[in-house]
Write a structure and sequence with these properties.
Elements: E1 2-6, E2 10-15, E3 18-21, H1 23-26, H2 34-43, H3 45-58, E4 62-63, E5 69-70, E6 79-82, E7 100-103, E8 108-109, E9 114-116, E10 124-135, H4 144-147, E11 151-163, H5 172-176, E12 182-190, E13 201-206, E14 209-215, H6 223-231, E15 241-243, E16 259-264, E17 269-275, E18 281-282, H7 287-292, E19 301-303
Parallel strand pairs: 6-15, 8-12, 9-17
Antiparallel strand pairs: 1-2, 1-5, 1-12, 2-3, 3-4, 6-7, 10-11, 10-15, 11-12, 13-14, 13-16, 16-17, 18-19
């Protein structure tokens, strides 16, 4: 099932190329606002699913092309992002130590929205293509052997990053939790529609040019281990997001006017814009292309405020 939020945050189910409104079916779920409603829907999904399926079967819906798509999870309690969690096409000799960082729920935007690059002295702005899982059952100290049972579904996730902010060693929060730096969508896909989340192709385009193209089978710490580790630190709740990391070799600078598209097999295509009021520019190279030319470090800023002479 593909769950979508649309227009004035109506809740719908994707049926072919149509959206069937199920808001009235789930309105009895206790909630304060749409974010709370979605988390409540996830928590009680098994109970309401039969009524949802009946409504979808009978309903015709409206064309998805005629609606404004919203982020499918407007207000998760937690967004946790796995760090350095890919083997980078076998170029890493061994997995990095398992690690993650917290990303503010206030960073979320959806399909058709815009990532805004802030007026700060960052070396480069990037967006990482990722598959994210959404928790169905919460809990603490969830064993890896039971972890997959706790997943409600999956969603495309673009992890925005402002690299090179200062002071060094004190950067994750201000690098990752900027407003608009977590893009999700276009809809949330329930886990039963994803046969194996560790065998999915992940592709990201910038202005129609393919930049990232990797498979989730390259993941260093698999999803059960990620859930086990994160839940050993704090309790996870229904609707929480865990982004599983990226292969960094295809990362490139996001710049003003860019159209960015992310597609993970079976999860639809998420498209966002990029706005930079300072109109800063960088070369259009990926990290891999830079490495192949024998260059080290991040792609340097070419023009605009904060560019180094």
């Amino acid at each position: 099932m593909k769950i979508i939020l649309f227009n004035d945050f109506r809740v719908g189910i994707l049926k072919g190329d149509h959206v069937v409104d199920i808001t009235s079916v789930i309105s009895h779920i206790p909630h304060h606002g749409i974010g709370d409603l979605m988390n409540g829907l996830i928590k009680s999904f098994d109970k309401v699913r039969p009524r949802i399926e009946q409504t979808v079967q009978k309903g015709k819906g409206v064309l998805i092309s005629s609606v404004k798509i919203r982020p499918p999870l407007p207000k998760p309690v937690n967004i946790e992002c796995m760090a350095v969690n890919y083997m980078e096409d076998g170029t890493r000799k061994e997995p990095a130590l398992i690690n993650a960082f917290h990303k503010s729920p206030n960073t979320i935007i959806g399909h058709g929205d815009t990532m805004v690059l802030p007026d700060i002295g960052a070396s480069i702005f990037e967006g990482e293509a990722e598959i994210a899982l959404v928790m169905g059952k919460g809990g603490s100290f969830i064993p890896a052997s039971k972890a997959m049972e706790h997943i409600f579904g999956y969603v495309n996730f673009i992890d925005g990053s402002a690299r090179g902010v200062v002071p060094e060693g004190n950067t994750f929060y201000q690098m990752k939790s900027r407003a608009t730096f977590a893009s999700i969508g276009p809809y949330l896909v329930t886990a039963d529609e994803v046969k194996d989340p560790h065998k999915l192709q992940v592709r990201l385009w910038v202005n129609g040019v393919l930049k990232q193209n990797f498979n989730t089978d390259d993941m260093a710490h698999k999803i059960p281990r990620c859930i086990e580790w994160v839940s050993s630190i704090h309790e996870l709740e229904p609707g929480d997001i865990i982004a599983t990391g990226t292969n960094h070799r295809g990362l490139s600078a996001f710049q003003d006017g860019d159209k960015v598209e992310l597609e993970v097999d079976g999860l639809g295509r998420l498209a966002i814009g990029v706005r930079d009021d300072l109109k800063r520019t960088w070369a259009r190279e990926t990290r891999l292309e830079r490495e192949q030319r024998g260059l080290t470090g991040m792609t340097p800023q070419l023009t605009g405020k904060y560019a180094k002479a």
